Structure formats: C-alpha cells, structure tokens
Amino acid sequence: MTDTERFDEALDRDWVRYASQLTRRISELAGSDAFELHAETASGPAACVHVHASAGGHATVEVTGSEPVTRPVSEADMLARHIVSVLRGRGKVPHPAFLQAHPPSALGDLRERVSDALAHALGRPVPVDADGDFVVVLDSQVVFVVIDDDGSIRLWAPLLHAIPENDTPGATPAAGRTHALAELTELNRTWPHIKVVLVEDRLVATVDLLGDPFVPRHLSELLQRLKGFLTVVDERFARRFDGVRYGSDRDRDVDLPEGSVLDEPN
Predict the structure, then answer these.
(1) Nearest to 233 by CA among 258, 202, 263
(2) Does a structural domain hold residue 8?
(3) Does residue 161 sit in the same domain as residue 231?
(4) CB contact set of 114 (below 8 Å; sequence gap of 6+)
(5) Residue closest to 90 by CA, chosen among 62, 64, 51, 61
(6) 253: in domain
(7) DSSP per residue, 3-42
(8) Dihedral angle sign, alpha carbons of residues 97, 99, 100, 101
(9) Are residues 141 and 204 in the same domain?
(10) What is the pLDDT of residues 19-40, one digit of tens each?
(11) 114 and 52 co-located in one domain
(12) Cα gap 22→105, rounded to integer Å
C-alpha cells in the first residue's frame, strides 16, 4: 500500500467516524432541538449545515447549496451520510477537523475537557491517533485514553503480547494462557484500582472513569496510579506471564499480524 493509499484510507475512516457521531446526535433530536455545523474558511467559520427536529419524530437537514432533506430520526444514518457526502463533495471540506458543531455536543465538549485536563497534567498537548483516542506516553509506556459513545472514559495500556496457548510447542513449563489467567487473579488483588485482562494473546491494563460528571483531578490521579503500576511491568513481569513486552528485544523476534499489536480490545 502506498503512502497516498494509506492517507486516503485514514481520511475515509475519519469521515466514517464523523458520520457515526452525526447519526447519534441526529437520532437524539426532539422538540425544538437543533444544531449547526460551521466550516473553517479563509474568512473564518461559516455555517454550512443546519439540522433541526421536525414534527412527527422527523429531522430536517439543510446543507448550503442543497435542497432540505427531511427523514424520520430512525433514518439518522442516511441523513448523516447525506451531510458527509455534500460536505466532502460540493462543500470541499477536506477533513472533519475543519468542522465545529454549535452548540457543541455533550461528547464533543467532553473531549475538549479531557484534552485540556491531559495537557494540564502532562504539561504538553496530547496527540490523537487515527481512532480518535488520546495517546499518552508514561515513561516510554503507551496509554490510550478512550472516550466511549456513552460518555464514559477508559484508560488502557497494552502490557504484553505473544502469550502462548496452553499447547504451544516450546512454551515454558507452567505457562500458557490458563496459567496467565491464574496469575491475573493475584495481580488484580494487588492492584484493586486497575483491571488487568487477557485478550487473546495480549495482556492489557484498563481503568474506567466517569465522564458525567467529569472531574479533571480524578483523571490526573488515575494516570498517576497507572504510572505506578507500569513500573512493575518489566522483564520479570513478562516471564511471569510468558509474554513479550512491547518494544523489548524479544519483541523484534515475534512475527505479528500487521495492525494488530496495539489494537484496542473489544
């Protein structure tokens, strides 16, 4: 795959994710609810989409330069695809990052508050990956901060991978995933505020946080707890679970399926 193809694929994925967010917001319209999308232009933000609730459980979408479209809110996905199609085509909006919702959605507002809280806690802006998750690096260990569709917040850190199945040839004695599950019981008792789980051949640490109400101090405290836990994830820890640490010397010798190493567990 060429760099151009990768870029196009990432761009399409971002628009699909944006359409999903629009679908959710349109499906929740009721009464006199309405919102606008403003696009960044050379002369500043300009309203380009107006969406409002209509009678009988319908929603109407008015995109600049197009005829209004009214559909039941149950068809919010179709309305969202219509908006994206017009904005990408006739509207020539290059990326969802050039759009702002007014008033902001509750989820969008939460993302901004989480971003500000992370920047304050770490002393620097925090980048976002292709999935829209915040990427935090704590002492060379990657931690993802995920805002779920229901407004909850999750911190998750990939710890180990390549944990063998129980009958894998060459696996060390008293190893394998059954052994790893048994070790997890003790580990989770030792660190009660952090949940460590086995996902296929990967060991992942997760921490949940309420998004409503969102308290920045709680996010900062959880990051510190997770940072303290990550100090024990060393080669001895890897041997305990017969796994491989990300970025270790052994990691370079493991044959991994492309794109699977740091995928968020479902």
Answers:
(1) 202
(2) yes
(3) yes
(4) 134, 145, 147, 153, 214, 219
(5) 64
(6) no
(7) HHHHHHHHHHHHHHHHHHHHHHHHHT--TT-EEEEEEEET
(8) negative
(9) yes
(10) 988 998 999 899 999 999 988 8
(11) no
(12) 10
* Residue 125 belongs to domain spanning: 110-245
Same domain, 239 and 115: yes
Distance CA 219, CA 216 (A): 5
**CATH number, position 74:** 3.90.70.20
- What CATH number is attached to the domain comprising 129? 3.30.1460.10
C-alpha–C-alpha distance, residues 130 and 108, integer Å = 17
pLDDT digits (tens, 9 = 90+) for 106-145: 777 888 889 999 999 999 999 988 777 899 999 889 999 9
Tokens encoding 99: 């759009």
Is the overall model pTM greater than 0.70, yes or no?
A: no
Identify which of 171, 223, 226 has the alpha carbon closest to the alpha carbon of residue 201: 171
